[in-house]
User: Which sequence fits this backbone?
């Protein structure tokens, strides 16, 4: 029905208001165009069936849709007929909200466009009013009707009360290298829930320069936080960088940019091989296939862990004991049974069946150095709904390599719990082992299970899980954590 | 070039380099968000936004599109058309963009409820510009919001994976060159998945995709959408796509990609500590050290890189490999072990080489029951070849396995292991040797795996809870069952020219006949292979030279004690159980032509092979015992063959008398003349032609 030259195509479908003037091919008469703020398009037709938009006899190609935002199609003379064009327009555009089709002089056109414009004005007024009412309803809903269920509020309260958690720690190798230049380190987590990052400094910086560390979103270039650490304030050990509040942003991918600025010798940051995952290696350095040695801390989005009375942000931190450490647990007594009494069950859970033999079944988990380790806790249960025997469990902590009997009786232990009775099946019991003083070196966590004396049962199904360590951050760092130097988009 | 820091300025239309094409239908409020993110692109080249209203009955859709176009004239272009579906809307936008913007390089498709980050267009266009001439499209990771999740589309593009998994979102960028070649959305696909079909068009045109990590594509995931609707109707949609793209989904085409990617076997030689990757044994990769292979295996369980790590590990010493290769037995032995792994957790083979006048093969096998626990023990006695699936190897080392799925398939297989003994007779045995795998090789393999795992911090990375949906080793199981209802298929190089001569028994005169036929086809550019369905094989060494590979496939159903037989009009025919039938079909499925020579087993398979696109031929001989039995047996399956070749005029008459359609009867010498055609042969063909 219509054809257009490539040159005119983008004009036909641009968003501005237009009026199409229709004339016969044979007509050479000049047409006086009224003074209206629209784009004027001219189309010619020989028979009222094919309409052509082109300039200077350029080749025209069929177009399957009518031009957009056309206010009126105007035929200034009595010819040609545009009935077919009108029908096609409605059919091809898939809508009846098309232009007005006008025959006659400019007065007719102006009248039709004025009517069309008034209708459009009414429509926009209605639309704007609807929008205002929608927004009012939304505000009212937020103010009065949107309620968090009470159970959820209790849960949120508990979550807010929970300490920050270590959500990631780079595996560390003693042969690690160090890096000083500008690098970009991809992070393993998204922005939501991040409280801060610890970087490990192997050698302190010197001079008047400073290290600029930026937490940013690579896909948008958005900077979530920026820390500025003078070289003179760096020293070997963990360098703690914290957000003023836990990030609530939803960005899936974030990265850390580290840049030395100014004069002097930048601090050397400890690296660790990226192992199987080179995509998490930092970029920008001659040292390849390495990532920064770092720890990431998380918490409840939006929550500030800063004490209102202090500008520091120390609070106990809870670290999940990694599944791979739990999976490497070993028994510590040469007990035998007809089938395995000890096994790793996956997801950080250990089976340790108490057996009808003395002494108690025991296993140990090696824990690498956790700075400021203050307590250990786990969950334990009898994983057998039909079991009616009450079983006994105990935790102990010792330095590596101690005699297990001496650990169990406490003489070689850093700390040991009392025997705790699992008084009913399936129910989960919490065991907490508080250390008398914080420990920052590797230790062994010992698990014990035994049957009550005199019972008939030969064995029981006891499962330990949910192992966590509580760290005293005040001891872990020898320097106050850094907060971002500027307002950020972090919350 | 114009530098654009903000996108709301109109561009010179003649210099627009990229278009964001948005088909609009429904959800007008979300469309406004989508348009807002589209015009917010920060690019160093001019771009435009083209929105196509697909006849949406909701008036707000028109109003929002119109308003954006009016507010950003020369930047946002608005097309409104009658509703014809998503594909038609995108095609209308494509036609408009190609015509209106002569400098156009690429088009990004953005659905009207998704968002894009401000740098997406620039990053994708730059990646496309940096690609080679076959770079057809660029895709990125999908960051899902609404129901939040993250889809890891990372890793190099794998065309093999793309055949069975749609990992390039509609929200990707197509190159001008691919559009100019004619790629368009299929307007008949109204129920979704048209984007997969579109990229497959590009693949069939010789283009490939490029992955750009984290460019900022945000996909709105809702409870109900066109995608969830498509998932309900996925079976007929996939059927449609595969029938449409036969050039991609024929068994030969699929296998060609598999061979090119060397994605099936990792072949490890303990004596050299080298590993080669291969699918076809005649096309191995350059060797890599064991540690590199094990690293790729461990990595395959963590991040997507389909095809980089083969799904099977085969262990044998270098000289055993050379012996089997020299005797053209390598492909067959690997295939037999792969077939055994369909039923057994691991498989091994002891090879006994003896001096003999002829080449002979004799297979025996024994199955061991499945172990109670999850382990796949290494062989305790000396073996020459040992094979296992990569998932089982990982599961043996690590309790939880490693892959997101497929680690413990071995625990549901009927057998714990299958051990073969292969007796090989050959002339000049003094010059050949096959050493068993050194007794400490498996311990060394295990300890090296442990070391590589530790060096790569495998336990740490494995405890990180990221998306492992696409992290896997490549396995025929991923696509053969779904595409072809086969477990796998014997890899055949240049399958388009490969022809298999199939025997039930392989003794002197059988092989001589096959050799005679093979010589005649070789002169016509075909590559003959010899395939025997049986556990024994005896043939003169000289006769075997003509064959590219010799495969002797023992099928238990055909054993001496099998009671699986059937009778057709007085003629005995074998039967195959399901497993053997699958193995036999897989053995022949990739050949372009198969010829039954003095055999009846192929009769049982020919129909299924034809359906897979294999040309099926039967050669009926005038043997001393009489051709009647062979002709009668063949007549029960005549419909499954494309062509029947009677050896003589007498057999031709016999075939016609039994009822073979005359049009199927051809003369071998006419098809594959090896010398001047004699008058007798000419008359023979004329006799055949009279009835055709």
Assistant:
């Amino acid at each position: 029905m219509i054809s257009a030259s490539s040159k005119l195509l983008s004009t036909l479908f641009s968003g501005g208001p237009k009026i199409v003037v229709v004339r016969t091919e044979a007509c050479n008469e000049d047409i006086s165009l009224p003074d209206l703020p629209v784009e004027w398009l001219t189309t010619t037709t020989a028979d009222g069936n094919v309409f052509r938009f082109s300039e200077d006899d350029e080749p025209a190609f069929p177009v399957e849709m009518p031009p957009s935002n056309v206010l009126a199609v105007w035929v200034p003379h009595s010819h040609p007929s545009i009935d077919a064009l009108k029908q096609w327009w409605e059919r091809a555009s898939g809508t009846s909200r098309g232009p007005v089709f006008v025959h006659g002089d400019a007065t007719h056109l102006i009248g039709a466009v004025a009517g069309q414009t008034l209708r459009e004005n009414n429509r926009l007024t209605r639309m704007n009013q609807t929008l205002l009412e929608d927004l009012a309803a939304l505000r009212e809903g937020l103010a009065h009707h949107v309620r968090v269920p009470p159970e959820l509020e209790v849960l949120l309260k508990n979550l807010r009360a929970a300490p920050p958690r270590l959500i990631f720690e780079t595996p560390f190798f003693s042969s690690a290298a160090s890096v000083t230049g500008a690098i970009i380190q991809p992070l393993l987590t998204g922005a939501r829930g991040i409280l801060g990052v610890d970087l490990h400094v192997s050698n302190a910086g010197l001079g008047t320069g400073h290290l600029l560390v930026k937490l940013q979103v690579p896909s948008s270039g958005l900077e979530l936080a920026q820390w500025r650490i003078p070289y003179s304030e760096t020293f070997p050990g963990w360098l703690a960088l914290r957000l003023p509040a836990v990030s609530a942003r939803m960005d899936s991918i974030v990265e850390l940019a580290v840049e030395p600025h100014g004069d002097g010798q930048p601090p050397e940051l400890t690296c660790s091989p990226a192992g199987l995952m080179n995509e998490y290696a930092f970029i920008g350095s001659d040292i390849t296939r390495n990532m920064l040695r770092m720890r990431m801390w998380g918490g409840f989005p939006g929550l500030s862990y800063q004490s209102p009375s202090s500008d520091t942000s120390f609070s106990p931190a809870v670290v999940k004991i990694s599944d791979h450490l739990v999976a490497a647990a070993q028994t510590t007594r040469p007990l035998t049974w007809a089938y395995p009494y000890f096994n790793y069950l996956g997801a950080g859970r250990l089976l340790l069946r108490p057996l009808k033999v003395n002494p108690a079944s025991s296993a140990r988990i090696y824990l690498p150095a956790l700075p400021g380790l203050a307590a250990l806790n786990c969950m334990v249960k009898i994983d057998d709904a039909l079991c009616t025997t009450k079983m006994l469990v105990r935790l102990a902590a010792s330095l590596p390599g101690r005699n297990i009997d001496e650990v169990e009786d406490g003489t070689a232990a850093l700390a040991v719990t009392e025997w705790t009775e699992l008084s009913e099946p399936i129910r989960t019991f919490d065991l907490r082992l508080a250390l008398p003083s914080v420990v920052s070196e590797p230790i062994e966590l010992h698990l014990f299970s035994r049957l009550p004396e005199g019972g008939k049962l030969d064995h029981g199904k006891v499962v330990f899980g949910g192992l966590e360590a509580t760290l005293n951050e005040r001891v872990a760092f020898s320097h106050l954590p850094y907060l971002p130097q500027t307002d950020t988009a972090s919350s | 070039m114009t530098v654009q820091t903000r996108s709301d300025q109109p561009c010179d239309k003649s210099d627009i380099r990229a278009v964001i094409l948005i088909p609009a239908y429904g959800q007008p409020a979300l469309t406004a968000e989508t348009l807002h993110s589209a015009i917010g692109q920060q690019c160093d080249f001019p771009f435009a936004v083209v929105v196509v209203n697909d006849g949406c009955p909701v008036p707000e859709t028109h109003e929002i599109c119109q308003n954006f176009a009016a507010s950003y004239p020369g930047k946002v272009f608005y097309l409104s058309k009658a509703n014809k579906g998503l594909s038609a809307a995108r095609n209308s936008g494509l036609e408009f963009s190609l015509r209106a913007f002569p400098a156009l390089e690429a088009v990004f498709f953005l659905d009207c409820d998704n968002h894009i980050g401000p740098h997406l267009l620039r990053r994708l266009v730059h990646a496309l510009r940096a690609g080679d001439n076959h770079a057809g499209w660029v895709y990125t990771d999908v960051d899902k919001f609404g129901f939040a999740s993250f889809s890891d589309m990372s890793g190099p593009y794998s065309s093999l994976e793309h055949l069975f998994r749609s990992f390039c979102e509609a929200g990707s960028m197509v190159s001008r060159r691919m559009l100019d070649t004619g790629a368009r959305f299929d307007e008949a696909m109204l129920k979704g998945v048209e984007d997969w079909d579109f990229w497959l068009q590009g693949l069939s045109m010789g283009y490939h995709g490029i992955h750009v990590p984290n460019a900022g594509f945000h996909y709105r995931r809702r409870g109900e959408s066109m995608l969830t609707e498509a998932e309900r109707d996925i079976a007929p949609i996939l059927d449609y796509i595969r029938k449409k793209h036969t050039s991609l989904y024929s068994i030969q085409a699929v296998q060609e990609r598999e061979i090119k990617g060397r994605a099936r076997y990792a072949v490890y030689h303990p004596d050299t500590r080298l590993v080669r990757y291969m699918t076809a044994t005649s096309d191995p990769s350059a060797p890599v050290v064991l540690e590199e292979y094990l690293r790729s295996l461990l990595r395959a369980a963590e991040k997507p890189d389909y095809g980089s790590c083969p799904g099977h590990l085969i262990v044998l010493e270098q000289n055993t490999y050379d012996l089997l290769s020299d005797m053209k037995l390598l492909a067959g032995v690997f295939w037999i072990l792969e077939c055994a792994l369909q039923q057994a957790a691991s498989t091994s083979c002891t090879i006994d080489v003896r001096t003999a006048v002829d080449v002979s093969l004799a297979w025996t096998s024994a199955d061991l029951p499945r172990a109670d626990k999850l382990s796949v023990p290494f062989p305790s006695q000396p073996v020459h070849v040992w094979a296992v699936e990569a998932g089982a190897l990982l599961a043996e080392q690590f309790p939880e396995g490693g892959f997101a799925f497929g680690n413990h398939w071995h625990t549901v297989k009927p057998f714990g292991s299958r051990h073969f003994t292969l007796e090989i007779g050959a002339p000049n045995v003094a010059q050949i040797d096959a050493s068993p795998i050194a007794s400490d090789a498996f311990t060394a393999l295990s300890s090296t795996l442990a070391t590589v795992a530790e060096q790569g911090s495998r336990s740490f990375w494995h405890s990180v809870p990221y998306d492992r949906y696409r992290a896997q080793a490549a396995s025929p199981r991923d696509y053969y069952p779904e595409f072809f209802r086969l477990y796998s298929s014997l890899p055949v190089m240049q399958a388009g020219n490969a022809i298999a001569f199939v025997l039930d028994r392989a003794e002197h005169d059988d092989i001589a006949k096959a050799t005679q036929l093979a010589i005649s086809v070789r002169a016509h550019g075909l590559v003959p292979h010899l395939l025997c369905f049986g556990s024994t094989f005896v043939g003169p060494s000289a006769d075997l030279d003509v064959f590219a590979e010799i495969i002797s496939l023992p099928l238990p159903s055909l054993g001496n004690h099998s009671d699986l037989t059937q009778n057709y009009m007085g003629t005995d025919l074998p039967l195959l159980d399901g497993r053997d039938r699958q193995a036999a079909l897989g053995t022949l499925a990739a050949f372009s032509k198969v010829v039954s020579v003095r055999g009846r087993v192929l009769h049982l398979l020919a129909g299924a092979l034809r359906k897979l696109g294999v040309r099926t031929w039967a050669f009926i001989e005038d043997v001393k015992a009489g051709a009647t039995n062979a002709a009668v047996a063949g007549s029960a399956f005549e419909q499954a063959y494309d062509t029947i070749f009677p050896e003589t005029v007498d057999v031709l008459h016999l075939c016609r008398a039994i009822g073979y359609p005359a049009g199927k009867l051809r003369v071998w010498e006419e098809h594959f003349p090896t010398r001047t055609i004699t008058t007798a042969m000419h008359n023979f063909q004329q006799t055949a032609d009279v009835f055709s």
